[in-house]
Amino acid sequence: xxxxxxxxxxxxxxxxxxxxxxxxxxxxxxxxxxxxxxxxxxxxxxxxxxxxxxxxxxxxxxxxxxxxxxxxxxxxxxxxxxxxxxxxxxxxxxxxxxxxxxxxxxxxxxxxxxxxxxxxxxxxxxxxxxxxxxxxxxxxxxxxxxxxxxxxxxxxxxxxxxxxxxxxxxxxxxxxxxxxxxxxxxxxxxxxxxxxxxxxxxxxxxxxxxxxxxxxxxxxxxxxxxxxxxxxxxxxxxxxxxxxxxxxxxxxxxxxxxxxxxxxxxxxxxxxxxxxxxxxxxxxxxxxxxxxxxxxxxxxxxxxxxxxxxxxxxxxxxxxxxxxxxxxxxxxxxxxxxxxxxxxxxxxxxxxxxxxxxxxxxxxxxxxxxxxxxxxxxxxxxxxxxxxxxxxxxxxx
Length: 397
Ligand code: ADP
Hints:
Elements: E1 5-11, E2 16-22, E3 28-35, E4 43-48, E5 51-56, H1 63-77, E6 84-91, E7 102-103, H2 106-114, H3 122-136, E8 142-146, H4 156-159, H5 165-171, H6 180-194, E9 203-208, E10 212-218, E11 221-225, H7 247-254, H8 259-268, H9 271-276, H10 282-290, H11 294-313, E12 323-327, H12 328-333, H13 335-344, E13 350-352, H14 354-359, E14 366-371, E15 376-380, H15 385-396
């Protein structure tokens, strides 16, 4: 297909990421980010042919629509209009309704809006992006790719919380999992690397970015994942706590903390930031550790220990393991963090491939360790969620 570019839109409550992607080879023709929506300092910036451009966007009442208008102009100015065959939207929550990528019509859009109860920050923002893109590109088909969809294959025992079943029936409280597009992509790429049909592959995928999650993949399908009803569950993250004793919430509220204060702390002031007391950024943690910062050292230890514990526990739903797959900004780049996670998994017999670990960084995939005991590898696969959104949109065309 000669003209097979897709405009990929990831619309957040105060930001909008976009890219024009070649759905065949994944080349990014232009990519950009609108930020600070709803505030006077809202901007939109993009990268084209290696050159960065930034502009202010005015009219605070509808920054999403104004950002899209600017993107339309950019696309026209660059003569890309005729090359774009679809718009692909990243949507955070598809609930139990959406198990794969779908073409957006009024019914799908209404469902996405209905699911706002489960993702009050994300789904309304995603819907805003869809409305704006539909108005701007009335003749282009639009597709929704859901963060939750890949995990809809989890068995009931993995997605059911050990709480009153009525809460599931009444409110839909269960494990949904997120980062599905990333877990899907890296598992498919790893299967290619192993030269094995993905339907016969068993993986533990470890996505470590600002948000972080682990997924157990059996015969190519998600069977468990560490994020839950919300993205707050599971691993320690940049600013999120991950798993914690829910009794702590009651304790803090009895101490006079409001619900907002508690959840602000758990979402925005915990994780690397909370434990280290200095930064949410893994590079900053590693740097501070080198300088002897005790908080950073502790944050590194807690983070790597917890990732290893999850990997260990995800051997349970699998009968065999082909590979542990590291991805995300941290998983793709930090050999120290990968090394420490594997050190914590001593009993599984992984032996580091030092050169492999050093080489698999900054966008390169590769093998970082091997376990003879499990007949398994540890590999790095750079994730590419935008490419999946572009590919799946075109596949459905
Ligand atoms: P997001 O979840 O926002 O997409 P990323 O996947 O880009 O985030 O990951 C961001 C994280 O990756 C940050 O903590 C950053 O410090 C970390 N990171 C990026 N490059 C490196 C590096 N060279 N070494 C260690 N950590 C890195």
